[in-house]
Design goal:
77% of the residues lie in helices and 0% in strands. With 223 residues, it is mostly helical. It is globular. It starts with a helix and ends in a 7-residue tail after the last helix.
């Protein structure tokens, strides 16, 4: 068993408890997720993904003495570009006003992930971002497509407004293989392995908080 798989097994119950069994996903599955809930999810997600290429590029700039890792960050940054536009597209399809909704600041979950990764990239150790990538790419590969299907089946207002989820459900299947290879390579160093695992766990906590931020905003604030 490699380092990635070992950490994946360690994080599986954390992911299940904090993300997969979160009340937000329960509401999507049972059809009680509201238009306002979905607008809040897209808004929080926008605040996260609009920053992803920036902290990945910053990470690349701090790994100039490690060419393969520098190139890995650059390649991932390129693949993550434009995902914020998917959120804008879906908000428009939802009949919401993106300019108004996206003008504010993110909630605690998205804010924490953005701050964490900029700090890792510029000050602590960019390798820690591999823990974030492992957590988020696993979530996208495991959940995004199914969530999109549930939304469009049980929440009619989302028809045509699930492009972000559908793109990530597909792309993250490919991304996760690249993350595994980079994670295992960096995990040969025990200190880097511990940092990546810690960030993986923290990211799952923060993603659960993002879901809580969505529900805390209320069920009818958009209407």
């Amino acid at each position: 068993m490699d380092h990635f798989q070992r950490t994946f097994q360690e994080m599986a119950p954390v992911q299940a408890a904090l993300v997969e069994r979160h009340a937000m996903l329960d509401r999507i599955r049972n059809g009680t997720f509201t238009r306002s809930n979905y607008a809040a999810y897209l808004t929080e997600t926008f605040h996260l993904v609009t920053q992803t290429p920036h902290f990945l590029t910053a990470a690349a700039s701090q790994t100039r003495d490690n060419p393969w890792l520098r190139d890995w960050f650059i390649d991932l940054a390129e693949s993550e570009r434009g995902h914020d536009k998917l959120c804008v597209h879906d908000l428009n399809k939802l009949g919401a006003d993106p300019d108004k909704l996206l003008a504010g600041h993110p909630g605690m979950g998205a804010w924490s992930m953005v701050s964490q990764n900029h700090f890792l990239a510029s000050h602590l150790n960019p390798v820690g971002i591999l823990g974030f990538a492992a957590a988020t790419e696993n979530l996208g590969a495991a959940l995004a497509t199914g969530v999109a299907v549930h939304l469009e089946t049980k929440c009619q207002f989302t028809r045509g407004a699930t492009s972000f989820l559908r793109v990530h459900g597909k792309d993250d299947q490919d991304h996760i293989e690249a993350v595994k290879q980079a994670y295992n390579r960096c995990a040969e160093d025990a200190r880097q392995r511990a940092l990546m695992a810690a960030i993986w766990r923290l990211t799952l906590q923060e993603y659960g908080q993002l879901f809580s931020d969505v529900l805390d905003r209320g069920d009818a604030w958009l209407d």
